[in-house]
Amino acid sequence: MSDARRRSPLLSWTVLAPPVALLVLALTWGHHIDTWLAVVIALVLAGAVLAAVHHAEVVAHRVGEPYGSLLLAVAVTVIEVGLIVTLMISGGSESETASLARDTVFAAVMITTNGIVGLSLLLGAIRSGTARFHPEGSGAALATVATLSALALVLPTFTTSARGPEFSGSQLTFAALASLALYGMFVFTQTGRHRDFFLPVESRGSADPDGHAPPATTRAALVSLGLLLVALVGVVGLAKVESHTIESAVDAVGFPPSFVGVVIALLVLAPETLAAGRASRRRQVQISLNLAYGSAMASIGLTIPAIAVASIWLKGPLLLGLGSTQLVLLAITVCVSILTVVPGRATRLQGGVHLVLLAAFVFLAINP
């Protein structure tokens, strides 16, 4: 009997990790976490992240690109948005919840457009000398991210209908509808007539865009889809469970409380980061950029409509406008990203520039 027949697929760690994460989440949600338990949760969280990446790749291999990267980005963001809205409705003081959506969304934008993009370009250039991608698809994605960021995070700083960096009710409604419209148009473009703009660029010696192994069966893909959703719920939920430990650690080292949101955003975006890095190592940089810009787009395009609906029950201000330092970082990111995307190829230098911008964001979040 062969090893493949003796080894049951139900005993694979990628199958066991998601339900274990969900079980740990159910047992620890709302409870005080000791240090030793926080370490165990961190290990379970890491396993859930790796399992999510595996199952996302199985599903992506079955449905093809760009549907695979779109599915992972939307799945993570939907769960993240649910967590944000839940925290805004039921948790924390007014001062803590007022800027929660803004801080989380901005952190997601900076991590995706600088962290994931920079890492992907660096790994792709190291592997092939030059990272190649479609400027048409990546440029369209970047334009959508920039427009969504301006509508949701920049304009509230300068509007005058409401006091402070926030929208009035009608302005928030417009921003929500515009965000949904933009995101919907992009998804239609990405999956419709211009789908080729979002497929990996074929180059000599590169792997087949869909990988060497044959696609999984429909049944196996559906199982992986279910396990992917379970793993993502576990990742986001355990990140929230760990937030109290993270808050204590942040307070102990003297960092500002807002830095907790950056750490949680890093944890939540870990599946996309790992998936993008693996795609770049296979010379599929376009898939990595699809994940990065798609995650940034979904984070804004789904969060703003969700909090617009939640604002019916929310009390107190809803601060969306960025501060001066954040505005400068966003402006530099957009300008550098344009210069990176337009040629359709990038060297290690461009990847390094984006990673330095991410480092600047993290440093200024620690030392504003």
UniProtKB/TrEMBL annotation:
<protein>
    <submittedName>
        <fullName>Calcium:proton antiporter</fullName>
    </submittedName>
</protein>
<keyword id="KW-1133">Transmembrane helix</keyword>
<feature type="transmembrane region" description="Helical">
    <location>
        <begin position="349"/>
        <end position="366"/>
    </location>
</feature>
<dbReference type="InterPro" id="IPR052946">
    <property type="entry name" value="Alkaline_pH_Ca-Antiporter"/>
</dbReference>
<keyword id="KW-0812">Transmembrane</keyword>
<dbReference type="Pfam" id="PF01699">
    <property type="entry name" value="Na_Ca_ex"/>
</dbReference>
<feature type="transmembrane region" description="Helical">
    <location>
        <begin position="220"/>
        <end position="239"/>
    </location>
</feature>
<feature type="transmembrane region" description="Helical">
    <location>
        <begin position="291"/>
        <end position="314"/>
    </location>
</feature>
<feature type="transmembrane region" description="Helical">
    <location>
        <begin position="259"/>
        <end position="279"/>
    </location>
</feature>
<feature type="domain" description="Sodium/calcium exchanger membrane region">
    <location>
        <begin position="35"/>
        <end position="191"/>
    </location>
</feature>
<feature type="transmembrane region" description="Helical">
    <location>
        <begin position="170"/>
        <end position="188"/>
    </location>
</feature>
<feature type="transmembrane region" description="Helical">
    <location>
        <begin position="105"/>
        <end position="126"/>
    </location>
</feature>
<keyword id="KW-0472">Membrane</keyword>
<feature type="transmembrane region" description="Helical">
    <location>
        <begin position="320"/>
        <end position="342"/>
    </location>
</feature>
<feature type="domain" description="Sodium/calcium exchanger membrane region">
    <location>
        <begin position="224"/>
        <end position="366"/>
    </location>
</feature>
<dbReference type="InterPro" id="IPR004837">
    <property type="entry name" value="NaCa_Exmemb"/>
</dbReference>
<feature type="transmembrane region" description="Helical">
    <location>
        <begin position="36"/>
        <end position="58"/>
    </location>
</feature>
<feature type="transmembrane region" description="Helical">
    <location>
        <begin position="138"/>
        <end position="158"/>
    </location>
</feature>
<feature type="transmembrane region" description="Helical">
    <location>
        <begin position="70"/>
        <end position="93"/>
    </location>
</feature>
